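Exercise: predict the fold of this chain.
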Amino acid sequence: MAVTGNGGGDASGRGPLAGLRVVELAGIGPGPFAAMLLADLGADVVRVDRPGGGGLAVDPAYDLTNRGKRSVLVDLKSADGPARVLDLVERADVLVEGFRPGVAERLGVGPADCHARNPKLVYGRMTGWGQEGPLAQTAGHDIAYIAVTGALGMIGNPGEPPAVPANLVGDYAGGSLYLVIGVLAALQHARTTGTGQVVDAAIVDGTAHLTAMIHGMMAAGGWQDRRGANLLDGGCPFYGTYETSDGGYMAVGALEQQFYDTFVELLGIADRAPARKDLARWGELREVVAARFRTRTREEWTAVFEGTDACVAPVLSLREAPHHPHLAARATFTEFGGITQPAPAPRFSATPAAVTGGPAQPGAHTESVAADWDVPALLPKDV
């Protein structure tokens, strides 16, 4: 598909959500990513951008979280701004917004206003703290949300500050993905009953939910509430990362006995590795493994372990990842508009998804949306 300078999606849609109409009130972080995922899966996502922009200083041409969408400009603080959004809402299945609690209501596009025009609408709300609670009106970012849930405190080496996992755990895993799950569940309910509802997706709720297994292990006595002391947090010598002779790293995840046996055999330490179940000797085992990894380069160790059940893989950079043979064979990454980027996920046998447009440029699709959605009020007065 040819790429236009304005980017934007294919209104005809493809993928399992083809035909679904989504209004996204422009924001930053998890809201746009959730709407991108809906667009990836075929929804016609119309992003309502504010004149003059806002949010983080990212060149819109490179903001991949706006790929496959269409954009219109509406000033919600103008006299006719809310009415123009409500005209879109009347024809939509879903609305996504990420304002602080109460802001959408003050602007005239809150749940009550929208449901008065469209009772079947699924109204998705994306915030860090949620719509209620002592911190609901407080500013925050991913790092604060994952901090109070206990997730951040789990990550990193003992005796060192917690390691910051970019904004993947909170914004996107605990936020965007839970919003999408909530929206799709509410859509099923709306199509069954004819009644829409509000989805309150809070990053603190989603991130806490992600730690369910760990809480169970802790209750059973199988997880210590401190960093670097457990099976899955780097405390285990056969589940972690090791530096190679060239400054690269290998990731080891040989948890099961049969995989561990293959690991120590290929690593060349089977004859001198302490018993894996002797926790008192885990430090010694780690030193043996680390010393052995430092004898070869990352590329050499990759060749040793590739295609085996040792559960060992090279730690790649973002630029290296698209060239990994397995990811390349699966087309896990794709190129569109000159930008290498992750392809839509997951995959569907009957309704495959695809990147259909580059990042939507603010206001670039006013005419096409006005025509397709039959909302002539979007057009400038002189058109």
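Check your answer against the key: The first strand starts at residue 21 and ends at 25.
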